[in-house]
């Protein structure tokens, strides 16, 4: 006859094991304590004070951390703000260094820069591109949209608007052409002379030197280049530029993308047409050369990199190529390329005064010497236009 018992559950076995372990631990502890008390030959080890000390130290550090957690977060925030401020300061210093740098261009006439302390503050520098043979054009501009004499100085002082005719030197410095410009400058005091040999096929080089020279004299927010056969409303131009004053790298003008002309002998022929892909391709977007504006950072960029900026056959293409690959904002500003009357005239009547007007077919005002005054009378903003602009 077999005896059968109920199987013991796993839970019961686990309880018995734990109880056995605790009983053994209690017996061992009592034996060790009794032996320690009666055995004077062994050193007595007291770990309780050490544990208390460690515990107190940990509690103290925990309280310190908890108490100063708010301060630490505050310090982190302050540090973050300081880093941001430092970044801005470094950026400003880099730009000031760029503007103050001295570089020499290839050719006879190296650029001489003033120290940063001597830079004249301005809102905008308007450089009117002109040539030795264009005296009548210059006179037509002086008689219409460009202030003269004391008004020109007042415009610069009160509004920070600098307007100058931009011209270089002849191939024979000191010759009759240079002396004629010297005499004109003595009379009007409205020239910016570049250390550059004048020539139609040197417009890209002249443009580089204009921006580099202007940046070395004036610390302006914007630098404008305009041809001497274009009509400009300075007040409207200033109002347009003022909208983009907070933009660090901005390129403003009437953006276009004309064909790359590979045929020799035609106007605007591009010898390096092969760089722009297959025959019949177009240029990248760039501002038309009659008038455009760039911010200070871009003018400084041109100044710094003057010797290595590539020059294409067309000046406006060259300028556009210098900004390809940079973080530059292109602004297609149609008010800077209005037509001559009746186009700009009806826009005035509608209250949309143009910043600049010219004829596309002539790349400027056709017969500008004869027509500049008529364009000004029909499309001008009035004598008070520039003086009423709040910059």
From TrEMBL:
<keyword id="KW-0333">Golgi apparatus</keyword>
<comment type="pathway">
    <text>Protein modification; protein glycosylation.</text>
</comment>
<keyword id="KW-0328">Glycosyltransferase</keyword>
<keyword id="KW-0812">Transmembrane</keyword>
<feature type="domain" description="DUF4094">
    <location>
        <begin position="9"/>
        <end position="102"/>
    </location>
</feature>
<keyword id="KW-0735">Signal-anchor</keyword>
<keyword id="KW-0464">Manganese</keyword>
<protein>
    <recommendedName>
        <fullName>Hexosyltransferase</fullName>
        <ecNumber>2.4.1.-</ecNumber>
    </recommendedName>
</protein>
<keyword id="KW-1133">Transmembrane helix</keyword>
<dbReference type="Pfam" id="PF01762">
    <property type="entry name" value="Galactosyl_T"/>
</dbReference>
<dbReference type="Pfam" id="PF13334">
    <property type="entry name" value="DUF4094"/>
</dbReference>
<dbReference type="InterPro" id="IPR025298">
    <property type="entry name" value="DUF4094"/>
</dbReference>
<dbReference type="GO" id="GO:0000139">
    <property type="term" value="C:Golgi membrane"/>
</dbReference>
<dbReference type="InterPro" id="IPR002659">
    <property type="entry name" value="Glyco_trans_31"/>
</dbReference>
<comment type="similarity">
    <text>Belongs to the glycosyltransferase 31 family.</text>
</comment>
<keyword id="KW-0472">Membrane</keyword>
<keyword id="KW-0808">Transferase</keyword>
<dbReference type="GO" id="GO:0008378">
    <property type="term" value="F:galactosyltransferase activity"/>
</dbReference>
């Amino acid at each position: 006859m077999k005896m059968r018992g109920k199987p013991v559950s796993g839970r019961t076995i686990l309880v018995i094991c734990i109880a056995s372990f605790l009983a053994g631990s209690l017996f061992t502890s009592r034996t060790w304590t009794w032996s320690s008390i009666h055995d004077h030959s062994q050193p007595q080890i007291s770990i309780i004070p050490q544990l208390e000390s460690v515990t107190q130290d940990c509690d103290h550090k925990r309280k310190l951390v908890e108490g100063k957690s708010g301060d630490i977060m505050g310090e982190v925030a302050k540090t973050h703000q300081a880093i941001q401020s430092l970044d801005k300061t470094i950026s400003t210093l880099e730009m000031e260094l760029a503007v103050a740098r001295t570089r020499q261009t290839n050719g006879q006439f190296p650029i001489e820069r003033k120290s940063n302390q001597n830079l004249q503050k301005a809102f905008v520098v308007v450089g009117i591109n002109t040539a030795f043979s264009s005296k009548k054009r210059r006179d037509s501009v002086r008689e219409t949209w460009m202030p003269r004499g004391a008004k020109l100085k007042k415009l610069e002082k009160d509004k920070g608007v600098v307007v100058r005719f931009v011209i270089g030197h002849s191939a024979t410095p000191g010759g009759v052409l240079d002396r004629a410009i010297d005499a004109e400058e003595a009379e009007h005091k409205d020239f910016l002379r570049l250390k550059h040999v004048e020539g139609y096929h040197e417009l890209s080089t002249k443009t580089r030197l204009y921006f580099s020279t202007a940046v070395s004299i004036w610390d302006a927010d914007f630098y404008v280049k305009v041809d001497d056969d274009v009509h400009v409303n300075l007040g409207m131009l200033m109002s347009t530029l003022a909208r983009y004053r907070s933009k660090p790298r901005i390129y403003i003008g009437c953006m276009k993308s004309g064909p790359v002309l590979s045929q020799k002998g035609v106007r605007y022929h591009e010898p390096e047409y092969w760089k722009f892909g297959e025959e019949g391709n177009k240029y990248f977007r760039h501002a038309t050369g009659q008038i455009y504006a760039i911010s200070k950072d871009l003018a400084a960029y041109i100044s710094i990199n003057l010797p290595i900026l590539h020059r294409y056959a067309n000046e406006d293409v060259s300028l556009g190529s210098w900004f390809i690959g940079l973080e530059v904002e292109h602004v297609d500003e149609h008010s800077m390329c209005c037509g001559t009357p009746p186009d700009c005239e009806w826009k005035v009547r509608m209250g949309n005064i143009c910043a600049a007007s010219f004829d596309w077919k002539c790349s400027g005002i056709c017969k500008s010497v004869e027509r500049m005054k008529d364009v000004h009378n029909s499309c001008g903003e009035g004598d008070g236009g520039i003086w009423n602009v709040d910059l």
